[in-house]
Write a structure and sequence with these properties.
Two copies of one chain form a homodimer. With 419 residues, chain A is α/β, with parallel strands linked by helices. The first copy, chain A, contains 14 helices and 17 strands. In chain A, the strands form four sheets. A six-stranded mixed beta sheet of chain A has the order 2-1-3-8-7-6, sandwiched between helices. In chain A, strands 14-13-15-16-17 form a five-stranded mixed beta sheet, sandwiched between helices. Strand 14 of chain A pairs antiparallel with strand 14 of chain B.
Amino acid sequence: MRVEIVAVGTELLLGQIADTNSQWLAERLAAHGISSHFHQHVGDNHERIVLAFRTALARSDALIVCGGLGPTQDDITREALSAVMNQPLERDDDVVEEIRRMFSARNREMPENNLRQADAPRGATRIAPTRGTAPGLICALGQKVIYALPGVPYELSEMFERAVLPDLEERQRQRGHRGVIASRVLKTWGTSESALAEALSGRFEALTGGGEVTIAFLASGIEGIKVRLTARGDDLAQVEERLRGEEGRVRELITERFGDIIFAVDNQTMEDVVADALASRGWSLAVAESLTGGLIASRLVNVAGASNWFRGGVVSYASSVKFDLLGVDVGPVVSASAAQQMASGVRALLGATCAISVTGVAGPKEQDGHRPGTVFVGLDVAGSVDHTTLHLPGDRPRVRAYSAISALDFLRRALARTP
Amino acid sequence: MRVEIVAVGTELLLGQIADTNSQWLAERLAAHGISSHFHQHVGDNHERIVLAFRTALARSDALIVCGGLGPTQDDITREALSAVMNQPLERDDDVVEEIRRMFSARNREMPENNLRQADAPRGATRIAPTRGTAPGLICALGQKVIYALPGVPYELSEMFERAVLPDLEERQRQRGHRGVIASRVLKTWGTSESALAEALSGRFEALTGGGEVTIAFLASGIEGIKVRLTARGDDLAQVEERLRGEEGRVRELITERFGDIIFAVDNQTMEDVVADALASRGWSLAVAESLTGGLIASRLVNVAGASNWFRGGVVSYASSVKFDLLGVDVGPVVSASAAQQMASGVRALLGATCAISVTGVAGPKEQDGHRPGTVFVGLDVAGSVDHTTLHLPGDRPRVRAYSAISALDFLRRALARTP
């Protein structure tokens, strides 16, 4: 079964709202091993909705349509379904009564428009609404099927789980389809997407032939570069085993070539990993930031329970704040020694076990003779100091974001080496 | 010109990432009066990408393709373009040299894979990359055109503005398309989208009839709630006049009902406005942040020239940092007096003219008897202190983001009242 998602609404084409429905549905389908090869967005226009449906029916086995089932004049998914099925719309008296009842129960007058929600193409099956007034529809067309769901995410998700997913799974079974799909994401920091791809090219080719596990790369800014393994199999146990096996091989290749650059798995973030390493040792952290201007601290406080290990930080943007508050020697502030002094200074000032610091040139101009993108990271772990020098590409926001993840990664590696 | 957006990437079909590129592009196209009737998502599969392109070419005049131009094996947009154009891929030696140069400038070894980025179908025009290594492509097919852009949003947006938009506008002109469209965005902070819509309902109806200017609302998180006026006309002068007239009426209605809630226009941000107010007075600013954890400081340093007026800040996440470093009275730290003491404390500590501070409950649990979303903002302008209390909706990240913009808005209003 290949399912195509068609999201209906002019607001999508104008960029006024993000299409969260397609992403949510895609994730749910993938989790159940149901393939989806295409998505479409189309506006509230009869001819174009019909064209989008026909296009989807030609290349997919099932359609999930989101939106256009509301009561107003721009809700025309029902009419488009009627055209594609070549069946007239019929008004269901029971649904009419149900809609009237819902309005009177809320003591509200019912606009006549609302009765349009009782219309459905002849032959369609209704999905009763439990969270709104719009019924969903299941429209069979020979061996293919169109599911129409309301665009309100909260209504859509409930109907999908209750009525669409079971129906899709039954159709899969009837076609003799078995199997599930699952993914594992390895997050890395410290090399490029292309270098990773090259190091794993052997696996890539090995997997392309077999097809049981696939591999993909995704550069995700401050979340690092992701390596995604996706496995198919008859059941969850088999898929898990395939993922485990492939993860082991991929980890070995990456570590052999680049060292300890895999910092997290799946939804874990860099700050989660640092938080775990600190909390498990009962240690606390302080940060001193110059060019990142609070970015590192603002990421750290997003971790649940940060108050257990995060003391706080100093944004020492002006040089005099570095000298007066953090005890940095008066002189150039973009240097390795300034970074180390910032770390030791903020550690003492806030009474933390460890501290990291960042000073550097965000650009666009040079500073202290250093080119934009030159960044010094300082570290003080229980009195033992260290530093690293970065040369980062990009404009100011990019240099800042990369500096933040690089500093956290420097701390992560230091903690991993510290018993 | 009808433009179709085709976003390429298996991660979209698996629901692993949100398609922010299509939304961003759709908004930019709409702002320039260019229609878009369909969007598609397709995975990293040659046959299916080719099918998606052919489908789009059949129903649209131009395609903007996002993604699949990277250096790795799963980046196959170039091959699909070659198939659709029926032209072989050719490697450009100048681009090869450029890619080698970029790697050697960063002292990094170039994986052989990266040279694939120098490939393009014969007859295609390259868009030079300024923010990454992937060139974009402009591929003419008779009267139609395909623009291929990298999927990294930061690279995509720059190439779109520099190369795609001017080319699309030129094609519109060649087709005899006349008339221009322009927008003005008024950014507000301090009321709800529905209250704004109600206050402007008279204008909304007046404009719906005429059609020369339209009005739309867009809740944009920490950028506030935007009121967008869009005017069409024969030339720029006419459009500007229409916008000016309508902006005056809308400003009057908003200010009459809600006071000074319009903080910026178009691309101006809250921090830009605060920066101007400080710089014009020759004043400096310091911040003390608890629940926002550096978020305010990290926004302020994004303003060009921030070092002229931004001293820095203290992220006083642990209570003892508030007591010891900022001189807050030992006791409950979620209170109006703690907020004021934080502001005065950081102002003195960093030697600034003004200071703002934030303390409160991000949630999900209560603190000091206050419900999640209760936030106190402190202010010290040249020794004159003030505070405000907020009750914000949402989860932790939302409460933090709203606290940050609210604190900056509190400072903005205070500066506007100060001669």
